[in-house]
Each structure stands twice: as C-alpha cells, then as structure tokens.
Amino acid sequence: MENDFPSDFELYESQELNSSEPLDRLSELPDSVVHFIFSFLPMDYVVRTTILSKRWKDLWTFVPYIYFQPKEGELDKFTNFVNRTLMLWKGKKIQKFTIDFKDVYEPSSCTDLNLWVRFALEHEVEELDLDYFFVTLDDRYWMTQRLFSGSSIKKLRIMDCNMEVSGKIHWDQLKSLTINTVRWGQDEIDKVLSGSPQLEILIMYTSEKMSIHSGSLKKLFIHFDLHNHFGEEIDSALEIWTPNLQVLEISGRLYCKFFLQVNVPSLVEATLHFSTPGYDDLEMVMVRDFFQSIHHVEKLSLGSHFIKELSAMEKNDLPSPPLNLKRLSVDTYIGKDVLAGILNLLEISPDLSILEIMDLRSYEVIKTKTYSILVSSFVA
C-alpha cells in the first residue's frame, strides 16, 4: 500500500532512562506516525495493537487508513468483525478505505458491502479500493448507486464488479480511476468521463470495444482481453479523442478484427503491445493512419504485431509517415519477418537517439545510442 509519509513527522531526542520506570517509546510517537504505521496493516492486526501501549488503547479508532482483508472460509466471522470495527471507529474523515474481498466473496454479502461503502462515503473517503472475486458473471457484486455520488473520492480502484449507472456520476475530485473486469458498456463509460471533470489517469482492463472522449485525461492504460468464443466474425474498435493525453498504453489480446483511431495531439509517450491471434492482418492502412496520428511522440514502444505490419507496409511499398521519435523500444522475435519493420522505423525517425530491442527468444535487451551500428550488424 502506498501512502505519503506524514508531513508533521518529527524526530524525537532520546530521553534519559528512568531506572524506576522504563521509557515507553511507543507512547512517545506522534499520532500521525502511528496511523502511518497502521496504514500498512489489515484492521485485524491494527486492533490488536491496543495491547502494545496504554496510549494506543483507543488510537486505532481514529486511524484514517482502513484496510479489511478476510481469510478464506471465514466470511461470517469477517463480516461481524468489519461491522463491529466500523461501529467503534471514531474518526471524522477516511483517507483510504480498502476491502480485499477476493478470497471469500459471496452474493449474499452485497447488503453488507453496500453498508461499508456507504460508511466510507459518509466519512469523505479520498481513496477507495474495492477488490472482489466472482465465480460467474451473475455472481459479481453490483456496485451501489450511492458510490456514483462520491464527490470526495480522489482515487478509485474497482475490481471484479458489475456497474450500471441509473443517473449521473458526480466524481468531482476524482484524479485516478482503475477498473478491472467490470461489466459495463459505452453508456457507463460516457457517464464516468463526463462526471469526472478532473480525471487524469484511467487504467482499464476490459473486454469491451469503446470510445473515449475526455479533455482532462493525461495518462490512459488499456489492457484488452476480448474473446471470440463462438467463431463468429466480430469486430472491435477503439476510438480515443483526448487532446491533453500525454501517455498512452494499449496491451492484451483481441481474438477478433480490431480497428484503432486516435486524436491525441499532446501525446509524448505511446506503448502498443497487443496482438490479434487468428487475425494477423491489422490492416496496413490503419497502422499507417495511426502512425500519422502519433507522428509527434518522442517515446514509442512496440510489440511484434505492429513491427510485422510495418514490414508488410515496406514490402507493399506503402510509405510510412515520418516520426519525431527520440527513443524507440521494440519487443519482438528477431527474424526476417520483423527486420524490415525495424529498419522502416529507423528510416522514418531521423532524430532517434536511443534504440532498445528486447529479443523475446533470449529476453536480452540490445541497447544503443548509435543505432546505425545496430543496423549494420543486422544487415551483416
């Protein structure tokens, strides 16, 4: 767990030991330091600290970092513990609230989960982390509608949930959002983006095709896991219209045809490490247009799929647009089918100063600042 070290942390001078009464150094620690230490522990361990020091007896009841992690097979015991802990908690504001429910979640727990999330929202939680486990899609936890009006949330992480928004979303202060395997559609995506005017970081693990329009996003990470289970001819598309985006990463596997369109005039860094097994042709025209859209990026990382398409473009005399690259990273198998693509990239990147190649056969990195030496060694 990551937390900023308390700003009012102070180093205390050592005091002379009293021969009649040993110094209780734990009691000398400021509350903020003790709470920071607590932030690394699940609440069942935090509660046990009451026996360590007299002053710590009730100190846990004001801790702003609340982290619940049950043990497998102890759902009822865990539920009772959480309910009692929250009933005894005396703080005013929660900095981070975490429920790591992936080992014991059952659909019957939804009522309690809703109450716990509501408790966090009522205490102006700034960072909310909800991690569940599901057996089937229908068993997933459906997020409470109350969550969508959590205006105090600045960082939100949601794992393995269902999401259906009946009204508007009011995440006025949200800066960072991570969503993994959440069942949602374009309507929910649009509501999230329109209801999060300050959102800067979006991390998504998804199996949905989508269109992303945002004026606030600066970093976008998308990991696809899109399956074609029935052998049907399906298509997937990703549209990204983000004028202030600086970092873009797309990874994963798409077992279908894939179309990519972007409008990212402020982009500085791009990473493309996705593949389309069974659909090797990414459409050379699409790749050419994509590179035209990101010609201004300074740092680019590519997987073998894109490199092969660049090789095909070279073979078919389809010109590639010039790039403004300063640094290029390539993860691929070194072979004839990708060599032309690498050389193509070097030819269209006159300002390139650093080239890194990860050979996936040996997992060795070839790095050079004078890429002409590397090129000549390939040709030889």
UniProtKB/TrEMBL annotation:
Annotated ranges, domain F-box: 23-59
InterPro entries to which the protein is assigned, alphabetical: F-box-like_dom_sf, F-box_dom, FBL13/AtMIF1-like, LRR_dom_sf, LRR_FXL15/At3g58940/PEG3-like
PANTHER family linked: F-BOX/RNI SUPERFAMILY PROTEIN-RELATED, F-BOX_RNI_FBD-LIKE DOMAIN PROTEIN
Protein name, per record: F-box At1g49610
